[in-house]
Amino acid sequence: MNKADLVAKMAEKSELTKKDAELALNSFMESVEEALVDGDKVQLVGFGTFEVRERKPRQGRNPRNPEQVIEIPASKAPVFKAGKTLKEKINV
């Protein structure tokens, strides 16, 4: 499902216009992005949690030359952890 499909599904379920559904989806995504950039996590009970995790620096291999060891710097990565209710619905 891509963004257009999701907007259409949201519009159908909420009886909003596609334009309003897209505005709501964009607002949600921007709000989550802002929270993560500010170092907050977003918890939606039953659905899941969006948060940022620190990744330690580590060594890796150059894909073009597997004998060459390269240093991979520390970074931050956004992650989503599914909530209990979502997991249960998927595993039915």
UniProtKB/TrEMBL annotation:
One BP term from GO: chromosome condensation
InterPro entries membership: Hist_DNA-bd, Histone-like_DNA-bd_CS, IHF-like_DNA-bd_dom_sf
Record has Nucleotide-binding as a keyword: no
Sections of the chain in a coiled coil: none
Keyword DNA-binding included in the entry's annotation: yes
Keywords from the UniProt entry: DNA condensation, DNA-binding
One Gene Ontology term of the molecular function aspect: identical protein binding
Any one of the GO CC terms: HU-DNA complex
Family to which the UniProt record says this protein belongs: Belongs to the bacterial histone-like protein family.
Protein name as annotated: Histone family protein DNA-binding protein
Organism: Alkaliphilus metalliredigens (strain QYMF)
Organism lineage: Bacteria, Bacillati, Bacillota, Clostridia, Peptostreptococcales
